């Protein structure tokens, strides 16, 4: 992936991460949230965070100190 593709993918992942965060909060506030569904959403959110971190690392050049 080139830098532009990485930046575009990062934007999509960050949006999905925020959307999941909002959905989890909404389910908690309603009090009717299925705990299994919330757990799955949290797991997906963690996977997104891992992928975001990986892509961000690709954008930062390696500097030998």
In short:
This protein has 65 residues and is mainly α.
Describe this structure in words.
It is a single chain. The chain is mainly alpha-helical and 65 residues long. The chain has one domain (3-59). The protein contains two helices and no strands. It has helices at residues 3-30, 35-59. Helix 1 (3-30) packs antiparallel against helix 2 (35-59). The radius of gyration is 15 Å and the shape is elongated. The two termini are 26 Å apart. InterPro entries: DUF465, DUF465_sf. This is DUF465 domain-containing protein.
DSSP helix count? 2
Strand content: under 5%
- Low-pLDDT stretches are none
Oligomeric state as shown? single chain
Give the fraction of residues assigned to helices.
over 70%
Going by helix content, strand content and strand pairing, the class is mainly alpha
Give the helices and strands as they follow along the chain: HH
Give structural attributes.
mainly alpha, 65 residues, single chain
How do the strands and helices of this protein lay out in sequence?
Layout: H1 3-30, H2 35-59
Helix pairs in contact: 1-2
């Amino acid at each position: 992936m080139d830098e532009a593709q990485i930046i575009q993918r990062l934007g999509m992942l960050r949006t999905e991460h925020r959307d999941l965060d909002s959905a989890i909060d909404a389910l908690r506030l309603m009090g009717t949230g299925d705990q299994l569904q919330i757990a799955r959403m949290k797991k997906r959110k963690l996977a997104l965070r891992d992928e975001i971190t990986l892509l961000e690392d690709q954008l930062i050049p390696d500097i030998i100190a």
